[in-house]
Amino acid sequence: MASPVLRSIHLYPVKSLGVQTSDEIAVEPWGLDGDRRWMLVDKAPRVITQRQQPFLARISAVPLPGGGIALSAPGRPPLRVEVPGPERLVDVELHRDTVTVAEAADEAHAWFSEILGSETRLVHLDDPARRRAVDPAYARPGDMVSFADGYPLLLTTTASLDALNALIAAGDRPHEGPLPMDRFRPNAVIDSTEAWVEDDWRRIAIGDVPFSVVKPCGRCVITTTDQRTAERGKEPLLTLARHRRVGNQLLFGQNLIPDGTGVIRVGDPVKILD
């Protein structure tokens, strides 16, 4: 088998909105440059994701120079949003964390509120170097993360997706497969490996950038959401529950923490360091 290589790079400028792809990107201590620096919250204020609002998959956010975003959604006029200033800082809930964030302009709140049919605010992670720490059970002191669920990057492999799709084809709902990789919302997709071999990785390098492989990714209902139509099915959770359950977690992919910074590029070799 050929040596592993980086097949594709994916980022999500607004947490839970549509994906953007890149041929090369800078790796920062808290994740890919521009990945999940924006997020939606409700009036609580608590994070909103595709778990509650699957239609978010159909909303696009394209990064702009300077950190802003260009928003578009079916049937809605586009909207440009600039990075807010420090005068708009508030605290919001992101899963078990309380995070200080900067609120976007009021027109962005109105844009999302009309689409989702409830009070919604768009917020920005103004200072990722000090706002949100990675779970200390899996990280070193000082490891930080953006608005990603818990870890700076998510890695998947094409071989494991092929294996999962074969299991889906042999299961109770073969008509739901094969599933595309976008169901799993990875940052880095690796080619030319054996299925599930990433379970045994502890440290890797993508090009010249080293990473710790800290924890398998437990999957949620978002993986059952078609990222193009926002419709939901039962797979892959049905099959993961049968074949990839560890405790109460259904596993696919691995969470990464950068051990350094640099640029990764599609086609970069992937070295298994440990």
Describe the 3D structure.
This protein has 274 residues and is mainly β. It has 3 helices and 20 strands. The chain has helices spanning 106-116, 158-169, 237-243; strands at residues 5-11, 20-22, 24-28, 31-32, 38-41, 47-48, 60-63, 69-73, 76-81, 89-94, 97-103, 121-124, 153-157, 188-191, 203-206, 209-218, 245-246, 249-258, 262-265, 270-272. The strands form 4 sheets. Strands 1, 2, 13, 14, 15, 16, 17, 18 and 20 form a 9-stranded mixed beta sheet that branches. Strands 6-5-12-11-10 form a 5-stranded antiparallel beta sheet. Strands 4-3-19 form a 3-stranded antiparallel beta sheet, with no helix packed on it. A hairpin with a 2-residue loop joins strand 17 and strand 18 (249-258). The longest helix is centred in the middle third of the chain and has 12 residues, at 158-169. It is globular, with a radius of gyration of 18 Å. The model has no long low-confidence stretch (mean pLDDT 97). Residues 127-273 form the MOSC domain. InterPro entries: MoCF_Sase_C (IPR005302), MOCOS_middle (IPR005303), Pyrv_Knase-like_insert_dom_sf (IPR011037). It holds the Pfam family MOSC_N. This is MOSC domain-containing protein.
